[in-house]
Amino acid sequence: MKMNYLDDLRTDMLKVILLLIILTSTIAAGINIIANRSVTAVILPLTLTLVLFVLYVYRKKWIGGHFVRLTIIILINFVYLPLDWYHSLGMTGPMPYYAFLTIILTLFFLNNKWEILIPVISSILIIVLYKVELNNPELIMNDLSRGALLNILMANFILVISMILIIISVVINHFRRGQRQLYQMSMTDYLTGVYNRRYLIESLESIINKSKRDEQPFQILFMDVDKFKLFNDTYGHVKGDQVLITLGRVLKKAVRSYDVCGRYGGDEFVVVLPNTSYDKAEEVVRRIKKDFHEELETLSFADVTISIGISSGQNKTVRDIIDEADQKMYKNKSEH
């Protein structure tokens, strides 16, 4: 699960990064056209934009693979950045900002130990380019005035800071989404998709307190699958799981949004119905039995039945109301 979470974060990050680089490359090409820069200075960012746009369009097919991420990182580190250094403004231009950002992102996307060589070599390359520029300043096509250069540097600095903030925002949102998913998993039964016993008991305690405070009735339904052990022994646990999954699905469809249905244990399920009279609870029971029978007919298990007991919840403890519903369920079972 940990690896899936990290892979999802990397995938989301890479999609955002592709869009950001496409945007900045397009802006860079436009600035170079306005500034009457060389044809190469215009074609280079446009080429990067085109390549990354294709990657983005086909991201569902390519972006998930680590090989694709690694290819993009290598191309940007060792092809685009050196060319950008040569055809733009050297180390006095925006290249150092993007080099720093690229190295940070490369570190984030590393999967294997040997890949640490990529940011190391990229850092060495930047140092080498800086030395080359100091010794051969004529190599850099820098024909801008000092004022224009400062404006470009400031604009790119703001752009890079904005990119970093956007990336941080993506990470934070992904982390929050992961927290919500973990919380959902912590209160959900993994097999049936209904609430688990812990969350069910906590919700029932809360509903009991609210019922006492507001003087509103509520009912609980306690149910299990008749002769479920015999069914498992006859058809196997895989078929038994299908029956439980079906019952969980029926319960979720049968209740209201503020009702609570959960798996109490084994083949036992509980449904809590706030602000509900006994007569209304009986209607819910009939609907559950009818829908469960219809669902099982499609699985050729039409002979499987459930027994349900109803208990009113006013002025009772959690243990008392569950025990009462349990007893009524077994009484109904014995009458079949």
**Amino-to-carboxy terminus distance:** 45 Å
Task: Identify the strand order in the major beta sheet.
Answer: 2-3-1-4
Q: What is the number of strand segments?
A: 4
The oligomeric state of the chains shown is single chain
Q: Calculate the mean pLDDT score and round it.
A: 80
Spans of at least 5 consecutive residues whose pLDDT stays below 50 are none
Compute the CA-based radius of gyration.
32 Å
Number of helices: 12
Structural class: alpha+beta
**Percent of residues in β-strands:** 5-15%
> Major β-sheet, in short?
4 strands, antiparallel
Order of helices and strands: HHHHHHHHEHHEEHEH
Share of residues in helices: over 70%
What is the molecular shape? elongated
Total separate domains: 2
List keywords for this structure.
336 residues; alpha+beta; Alpha-Beta Plaits; 2 domains
What would your notes on this structure say?
There is one protein chain. The protein has helices at residues 2-34, 39-57, 59-62, 66-87, 95-109, 117-135, 146-186, 197-214, 228-235, 237-254, 278-298, 318-335; strands at residues 218-225, 260-265, 268-274, 306-312. By secondary structure, the protein is of the alpha+beta class. The chain folds into 2 domains: 2-172, no CATH class; 197-335, Alpha-Beta Plaits (2-Layer Sandwich). Strands 2-3-1-4 form a 4-stranded antiparallel β-sheet, sandwiched between helices. Helix 2 packs antiparallel against helix 4. The longest helix has 41 residues, at 146-186. The chain is elongated.
